[in-house]
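#structure-requests
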Amino acid sequence: MVLNNNIFETIRMIEKEKLDIRTITMGISLLDCIDSSGKNACRKIYDKITGYARNLVKVGDEIENEFGIPIINKRIAVTPIALIASASGEDHYGEFAKALDEAAKEVGVNFIGGFSALVHKGFAKGDKTLIKSIPQALNETERVCSSVNVANTKAGINMDAVKLMGKIIKETAYLTRERDSLGCAKLVVFANSVDDNPFMAGAYHGIGEPEVVINVGVSGPGVVKCALEKVKGEPLHVVAENIKKTAFKITRAGQLVGNEVSKRLNVPFGILDLSLAPTPEIGDSVARILEEIGLEACGAHGTTAALALLNDAVKKGGIMASSSVGGLSGAFIPVSEDEGMIQAAKSGALTFDKLEAMTSVCSVGLDMIAIPGDTSESTISAIIADEAAIGVINNKTTAVRVIPVYGKTVGDTAEFGGLLGYAPIMPVNPFSAEEFINRGGRIPTPVHSFKN
């Protein structure tokens, strides 16, 4: 009887409450693809990805059909390309991006992450070349995602990299201006990035990871909201307990899928990222969870506290359900990808500054926020610096994925399509931080980083 109840409950979560496996992401090491010839390296990269991932989509589809659990995306993450391409001596890495894109198309995944550089303490050979290649690469490819880690708690903040990324984001916005600057939706700037994140645009395969691995990202904002509807008016510790129990159930579903994908592909199972990743569909929103907890609108005073409760309870429930919880795990707040966030931003309840405050307690950071196309490079860099500081001081992952939509301003709407959704253009602070950004250098490590 208990087993039957669990089965029926899972079916209800899938059919009525939008439970899904958001992504199965295959991580692939490209370290053995390093070659002094860029052409040879690109060929090796294509061959290795298409070899390992040739059955990834097929197996994902089979499991979805057999188990009845939707698997929305199948993706690939690779070793940061700056590490691979630097030996080639090429002065632009566009061909490497094209090799990734062609491989992704061949195996049928929707995104491939890893056109990335790790520059939190400085620029190694190839890092600047990759970063300067990002705008063209994201303009000329369809499925490639890019990330740059500019800070961590042990190294501090590389402000030269922060300044450079403001320029790169503006260039990417301009080159993809005919598509509402869509290229910026595939570019994220990190502090304390993690090696095993299965979610895009920030996924890459860290150098400490296995040769090949399967990481799973599971999502269920709708399930959590429906569970909270049953405890209306109850004290907040009851709310937290309810979220924990729900996260436990969601995690078990993800564990089942991850183990099965791993077995069928004969690839090790890595981590399960339990992140409440919303979509633009009604009923699949993190903002609506916060409102169910008791806020009139997401962004009202109390939002940060409610989000902290949610994020912590999700993590507690997940780690009780699986010993493989990793990645980011918690709650994402991407504005354009969350129906409730979109409406809160439109109404004025949710502001840019409030979003920044929320990032101190959520899984990642300022995510999928459309801003005026004439926002300056230095202002974008300052936004990155603020977010990096939150990550470095609090020893957590933070990120910035802002989209200065070329030709649009406050009052307009940017359309990105699919899971990327749409977003109102949000105002940014009009006062300048140019002198601060132009200082460059490095913001030193915080005192609590000296733990050895």
